[in-house]
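The instructor's notes for this session suggest beginning with a concrete chain rather than abstract definitions. Hand out the sequence below and ask the class to guess, before any prediction is shown, which regions might be ordered.
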Amino acid sequence: MILLGDLNSDDDTVLDNGDRNAYKAIVAAGFSERTTASPFSCCLDDPNLVVPGGFDHQVDHVLTDTKKVKLKTSSVVGLEPVSGLWPSDHAGIDSILKMPPKKPKK
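After discussion, reveal the predicted structure:
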């Protein structure tokens, strides 16, 4: 299983006021991170999306429920404004995963 999402949670970049609990529960259930945490991809604190950069934590994740799925590459996109505005308060993330080969049926 692959889990993608803005979880508003992480293990070490969000406040330890309960915001880490969702991520910790997902990892405890056997999921592993399959994206980069460097550079950060969240969040601009400006409703008009005109403030320069300042991404300071990670809440967007790609996770898998098996360690057999390997992370080949991952990156953060959208780290620059477009026509003077940021497209979102989050940058985008992408990951290329390698799935284990399927075993032939007997």
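Then share the key points. Residues 2-98 form a domain with the Deoxyribonuclease I; Chain A fold (CATH 3.60.10.10). Helices lie at 21-28.
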